[in-house]
Write a structure and sequence with these properties.
- The protein has about 350 residues and is mostly helical.
- It folds into two domains: about 1-90 and about 165-195, no CATH class; about 100-155 and about 230-345, no CATH class.
- The chain is about 50% helix and about 5% strand.
- The protein has helices at about 20-30, 75, 85-90, 100-120, 125-130, 135-155, 165-170, 230-260, 260-270, 280-315, 320-325, 335-345; strands at about 10, 55, 70, 100, 185, 190, 200-205, 210, 215-220, 225.
- A two-stranded antiparallel ribbon has the order 1-2. It has a two-stranded parallel sheet with strand order 3-4.
- The structure holds zinc ion (2 copies).
- One zinc ion binds near residues 184, 190, 192 and 209.
- Belongs to the DHHC palmitoyltransferase family.
- It catalyses: L-cysteinyl-[protein] + hexadecanoyl-CoA = S-hexadecanoyl-L-cysteinyl-[protein] + CoA.
Length: about 350
């Protein structure tokens, strides 16, 4: 699902590239007079644009989102936007909706690769090199993988949008121009959702929706981390730390054995990789696979540990990531503790 279609009135020439520039100028000139739709009105009107646009009875086109994006400028910068109204009608409903951040896809591929290499190669060295039955390694990593996959699904699928917005059910102000460095929420009212929202709510520009108890938008999970999924995010983070640490140590040990215990290495793999006849090819291929597994585990371990330490530090400070990054503390210590308590319930 690429986005939601807004059954609205569209300005003429909306989909005509040649009129995009003049259309955007008109929108910029009127961006300070964000006309809010009347309560219960299914569509916003174009009162302030009547001198610039004629009204036609065609539905808005879907926001054409690419499959992959790698810069949040796509969502924030007005100079590369094509159809502001179509973009404003779009909101991210879950992390599994395009566009996918390149970091999200990279982490998914790394996760799948690491588990494939572990179960096909590295796990067979647990018993000969460490002295623990291979079955223990399969059970530990298997359970860790299932729990991580479950936490990823939970964190990415839970609805983090502010309940005030869903309950109000108001039409969006599609003409709002998102600008770098300018908050969409002004004086407690969101300029796009047209709803009064609580103090810790932020309109995430990447997801294009108001998020309750906003902490940060995570490109690695392609979703917002906020009150409702914050505890799940911490569990996922801590699980990632120890699983990547184990994977890093094991692959490092096997990589050393590649050179110091070549006979044991060949013998162990030959008993499982039956179809691989040539010993040298087997040695090179397994070595490359395990080397990449170790590098990935090292990278993930460093990143997840740094992130876990940072969130522990935020807990001591009593701040969210957003407050830390902006230097604006919107909550008192007591409110912050209340946020953590509610997010865990
Ligand atoms: Zn909003
Ligand atoms: Zn977001």
């Amino acid at each position: 699902m690429n986005g939601q279609r807004s059954p609205s009135l569209a300005p003429s020439g909306f989909s005509n590239p040649s009129s995009t520039f003049s259309s955007q100028i008109a929108r910029l000139e009127t961006s300070n007079s964000h006309h809010l739709p009347s309560p219960g009105s299914p569509t916003p009107t174009l009162t302030s644009h009547r001198t610039s646009f004629s009204v036609i009875n065609e539905p808005l086109p879907l926001a054409k989102q690419p499959l992959v994006y790698w810069s949040d400028r796509r969502f924030w910068a007005t100079d590369i936007r094509r159809d502001i109204r179509a973009d404003n009608s779009w909101r991210r409903e879950s992390a599994w909706q395009r566009p996918f951040h390149i970091s999200f896809l990279t982490i998914l591929l790394m996760f799948i690769y690491s588990y494939c290499v572990f179960f096909s190669t590295t796990s067979f060295f647990v018993e000969p090199l460490i002295g623990i039955p291979n079955l223990v390694g399969w059970i530990v990593f298997g359970l860790a993988g299932v729990s991580m996959a479950g936490m990823v699904l939970y964190v990415t699928l839970v609805e983090v949008e502010a309940s005030e917005v869903r309950q109000a059910g108001k039409a969006r102000n599609l003409d709002f121009v998102k600008t770098v460095g300018v908050h969409v929420i002004d004086n407690g009212v969101c300029g796009i959702c047209c709803v009064s929202v609580p103090v810790r709510t932020r309109h995430c520009k990447s997801c294009n929706k108001c998020v309750a108890d906003f902490d940060h938008h995570c490109p690695y999970l392609n979703t917002c981390i906020a009150g409702r999924n914050y505890q799940g995010f911490l569990v996922l983070l801590s699980t990632t730390v120890w699983v990547s640490a184990l994977s890093m140590l094991l692959s490092f040990r096997v990589f050393v054995a590649l050179f110091t215990e070549r006979d044991l290495f060949i013998r162990t793999l030959s008993s499982t990789w039956h179809t691989f006849g040539d010993e040298n090819s087997l040695w090179v291929l397994a070595g490359v696979l395990i080397c990449f597994e170790g590098v990935i585990a090292l990278l993930v371990f460093v990143m997840s540990t740094a992130l876990a330490i940072f969130h522990a530090y935020l807990r001591v400070l009593g701040m969210t990531t957003f407050e830390y990054n902006t230097g604006v503390r919107s909550t008192s210590r007591l409110q912050f503790l209340d946020f953590r308590r509610r997010s865990s319930s």
